Every structure is written in C-alpha cells, then in structure tokens.
Amino acid sequence: MKNLQSTTMLHNGVKMPWLGLGVFKVEEGQELINAVKTAIKHGYRSVDTAAIYGNEVGVGQGIREAVKETGIAREDLFITSKVWNSELGYASTIAAYEESLTKLGLDYLDLYLIHWPVAGKYKEAWRALETLYKEGRVKAIGVSNFQIHHLEDLMKDAEIKPMVNQVEYHPRLTQKELSDFCRKQDIQLEAWSPLMAGQLLDNTDLQEIADKYGKSIAQVILRWDLQNGVITIPKSTKEHRIAENSTVFDFELTADDMKRIDSLNQNHRVGPDPDNFDF
Q1: With CB atoms 3.0 to 4.6 Å apart as the test, which of 66, 95, 223, 231 could cross-link to 40 if both were Cys?
Q2: How many alpha carbons fall within 13 Å on the CB side of residue 6?
Q3: Which of 44, 53, 122, 133 is catalytic?
Q4: What is the pLDDT of residues 3-36, one digit of tens each?
Q5: Where is the signal peptide (predicted)?
Q6: What's the pTM value of the predicted model, to 2 decimals?
C-alpha cells in the first residue's frame, strides 16, 4: 500500500485498488463529471457507482473525458456498478448489466455486485453474474450488504464464490465477525460510508489520533480501513476533499491507535439493516 494505484489481489487474480471514489447521491451533471475527472487526475483508479444511483451516464462521461485528457488507458481503471433489487432475476440481471454498460459507455465492468440480498431473488441473480463472468464480460463479481448467513446461503449453490462484499463499515460499525468470515473465505471486504456520512468528523478520540499524525479525522478513518485490509470508497465532489482523502499512504497507525478506533464500535448503522429492509 504505497499510493493510490496500490491494489489488492482478489481470489480470481484480478487486482483491485485499495481506495476509490464513491458517487452515491451525486446527481447527474457537471459536478459529477468533474468529480470523476478530478479523482482520476489526482491518481484515483477506481470509481464505484450503481444503477439505482441514477448517475452512470455522468460517471461514464467523466471517465471518457479523464482518459482523453490524461492518456490513462481504460484498462488501468477499475469501474464498479451494481444491479438493483427490482432486476434480481436471471434474465433481468443480465439485461441490467447491459443497460449499465450502455449508460456508462463501457465495453465491460471490472466489478459487478448484487446491491442487496433480497430473499428468494439473489441466487438467480448470482447465476446471471456467474454467466457474465464465465463469458469474460466482467472481470470480477461480488455482493453488497450481505451478512454471513446470506453468504453461506449463496455459496451453497454457487459455482463461483463472490470476490467482494461491499458493506457499511466505519468505526461505529466494525463488523468484526463478518470481516473475519470474509477473510477466511478469501472474500474481499469493501467499505461504503466509511466516514459514517460525516457523523464521525467531530469525534474527540479520532481528533486526538489525527492531531498526533498531523492528519484529518477522515484520513485517520480511511487509513484504519486500509490497515484492517478493507477497501474503501469515500464519496466527495470537492477537489480538496478528493485530494485529502487520497493522502493516506504516507503514515501508519500504531496497534494501540487501531485498538482505540476499534473500541468506538457500537454496531450502529446509518444505512438500512441488511436483515430488515423493504425495498
């Protein structure tokens, strides 16, 4: 983990950047396009979107403009999207993948995820992802918001094990059991809402640690993610924040600092509960 181009290897041999740009709740338009371009120019190589975000067109435009202006090859970027709950079926998931590609203006995705574990639907969707993967149309496949029991249920019938599980993960929700399970199964954990929607940015414990390193609380949290072996995708549209979020490769938290951050856990979610959602 030396810089923004540093990667981890998924269990199928595909390399995925440790840090990427998230675009949840960023609407279509120039702000989104600029955010994607700014991130890539600052060295980011990974962008995470989803069909339900309604912004794949702008993400795709930002990618194309950045590629044109920087000369970075598409193959050096890692683009993720996700299939929404209403499309979870074999044929409908494949159709959703095609639609995401069309909106993004890409020939393939690096990672495609099932967005939520909708009971009775995610196995058919997973079969579709396996087909896309076997056909070489997507580089890696995975899930999002899956708990241990969802993963165990999925893997009972799956031919291919998920490569990634993207979940809500931050110092108030450390997901220790899930993290241990994924590590044992060689499923890469990825954090969404790593900064807890900004709710941790005035935490006194984190501020003390940040002061010690001359860093911001956001940088300390993102570094904690990385040292826990968790990929992280902070969201921002502001250039100074995009740059700041990426400056986490020039310091290392001590074991005591890591434990202190772990101790902030309250099993508190800012997003929906994967065992109790109705959408």
Answers
A1: 66
A2: 16
A3: 53
A4: 999 999 999 999 999 999 999 999 999 999 999 9
A5: none
A6: 0.97
